[in-house]
Amino acid sequence: MKTNKTYKLQFLLLFVILALCFFTNISLGSVSIPFKSIFGSLFSTIENSTWEVIITNFRLPKAITAILVGSGLGISGLLMQTLFRNPLAGPFVLGISSGASLGVALVILGSGLFGGAFAIALASKWSIVIAASLGSFLVLMSVLAVSHRVRDTMAILIIGLMFGSITAAVVSVLSYFSSAEQLQQYIFWGFGSLSNLSWNELLIFSGIYFVGLILSIASIKGLNSLLLGDNYAKSLGINLKKNRFIIIIATSLIAGTITAFAGPIAFIGLAIPHLTRQIFTTSNHKILLPAVCLFGAIVMLICDSVAQLPGSDYILPINAITALVGAPVVIWLLVRQRKMMF
Amino acid sequence: MKTESKHIILKAEQLSIGYKTKKKDMVISSDINFDLEKGQLIGLVGENGIGKSTLLRTLIKVQPELSGNISLNNQNLKQISAHHLATQLSIVLTEQLTSKNLSVFELVALGRHPYTNWIGNLTEIDFEKINQALELVGVSDLKEKKCFELSDGQLQKVMIARALAQDTDIIVLDEPTTHLDMYHKAYILKLLKRLTQDTGKTILFSSHEINLAIQLCDTMIVMTKEVTVTDQPCHLIEKGVFNSLFPKDMIAFDSKTGSFRVTK
Known about the structure:
Chain A is mostly helical. Chain A has a single domain, classed as ABC transporter involved in vitamin B12 uptake, BtuC. Chain A has helices at about 10-25, 35-45, 50-85, 95-110, 110-115, 115-120, 125-150, 155-175, 180-190, 200-220, 220-225, 230-235, 240-260, 270-280, 285-305, 320-335. Chain B is an alpha/beta fold. Chain B folds into 2 domains: about 1-90 and about 170-185 and about 190-230, P-loop containing nucleotide triphosphate hydrolases (Rossmann fold, 3-Layer(aba) Sandwich), CATH 3.40.50; about 95-165, no CATH class. Chain B is about 30% helix and about 25% strand. Chain B has helices at about 50-60, 80-85, 105-110, 125-135, 150-165, 180-200, 210-215, 235-240, and strands at about 10-20, 25-35, 40-45, 65-70, 75, 90, 170-175, 200-205, 220-225, 230, 250-255, 260. In chain B, the strands form 3 sheets. A 6-stranded mixed beta sheet of chain B has the order 6-7-8-3-9-10, with helices on both faces. Chain B has a 4-stranded antiparallel beta sheet with strand order 2-1-4-5, covered by helices on one side. In chain B, strands 11-12 form a two-stranded antiparallel ribbon. Chain B is globular, with a radius of gyration of 19 Å. Chain B starts with 7 loop residues before the first strand and ends with a strand. Classes of the chains: A mainly alpha, B alpha/beta. The interface of A and B includes residues 82, 218, 220, 229 and 232 of A.
């Protein structure tokens, strides 16, 4: 929106970095595969079939998941920060992750309470995905129902946090009555994971992600007017209620599916928009939205590469890495600017 | 360059304002009648808590009127759609901007929202209107600055430029002179006066700067506990309306100089 600034150079640079990170991410792993073969396997078949299987069935879906998760969390963070006029808002302020945690906790921890046969049926991965989606969806619907009555966005923020506390309490009670193995399984889910997604799962994941993305793009104009404040936005002919509804639905679709498939991944949603604003010194969402997309994808790919501990067989929990990267960044920003702008 | 034709932009008839609660209506002020003409500078004055802001909020459709009628360009305010209203009426409020990270150009460009497409692309016409607004207010050199870098006076000018870019018949400002020093108070009000003359827009503002308003306004709306009177400042002085504005033991109106003095 600036006189003629379109940030072409920055976008080009980010694209190049994204491509670099993508290939680096694919080439790293417990089995070392030469870079040439990686390129070959992406565009044609290569002679070593084991390598091909590793790349097409494991590394490629994981890298794509990382891109979707990173960009999606970045978008949801940006939408929530503008909607709640709060630089500390992230995709999970509406209780999305706590709802998902509750769903997953009920499946993993609660299965012991419901008996053996049921527990086996619930152990599959899809049940966790469905439970997480249902959980976040239900909490979100309650928040939306309340927000229909409450006009103040700050109140909605606090209501979301309260829902989070309630679900956390329920999870504590459930874990008190659970076995060690069940607790371990629940904690592993909480670590977050970008791997283990099959192409079919990825297809569903990306389908919902793109619906959320389209809704976010549709609300760009409304988001920009919200920068002035509610009354100004109204005076510009913006339908506030409708806009708020679309923004919340977009966030919940994106952040909800991410949590369902990859677990509650911390800090990316909060930190990415702030990092992006360091490079793109604008508040225009038309520029910020694609920028957080690219930036989120890059950071997530880097975090994932670090999590694999290059050269070793271990994969660290992705949630730990994102927090290790994210938290210092937020602290650094606060110390440097002494104020968080959005 | 005063407009001779009596083109009524904003009209209030038997207007009653206040807040609706479940049990009953809280009436703040009632029996408000006025006709505001095109191209005039109109000052709204009255003591704190008399209902100036409530009246303005009612006029810009932020809160509903209790009874009576408001018409904008001969159309009932209730029947004007939000989008259509955005092309007829723009506002400058006392509330803080949500994001001060906006650049001045971005902020003024937001005024073009009612005219831009679904994603907010600016056309040549939009650029022209934005630059024109920046120039009229005299803030073209601040274009690239961020709002948090501006002084209160500069920010107020930029907010006025944003309202101008919205290209509406009437601009409503709620206390545009608060937080400003004496020079900037006079500057802003003189700027508003010049804008009505240069652009033919109607500008309605509320203010506590009664002395300045008397000197600059074409019409004034004076709100007191008993009545709300609308007239030219000189007529209001003749009628002695200002004498009843404040308790006389503290401040008195001197009709010779047309200003208030502290009673000694």
